[in-house]
Protein: Diacylglycerol kinase family protein
Amino acid sequence: MSRWIDVRKNLRSFRFAAEGIIALFRFENNAKIHLLAAIAVVVAGIWLQIDRVEWALILTQIGLVLAAEAFNTAIEKLADVVSPEHHPLIKAVKDLSAGAVLLVVILAVVVGILIFGTKLIEMIFTKADWL
Structure:
């Protein structure tokens, strides 16, 4: 009997996706660095008591950076299989992919500066008023 949604197939897909996420953080150094940075940002957000909208922006940036790193890793691994030896076009693909991650990271840093910088400046001036 055919079902519109095959639950077992969907669960299997989620398992494969989870295996990919685990492999990303287990084997990829850049992903580990991004994950540590994300944890530091979450701790800073808790400490600075950012509001709901700021959390939404920060968590979106974290997700974008981690997703970009996952896509970059997938592209690099595929490129290595397609062309194990050096090839200028494969190098260009890898450079573009890494550049995309860098762009996302730069924008995430800008968003972080806008949110955390504002909070820190408010804290400094609030404390300066009563000192």
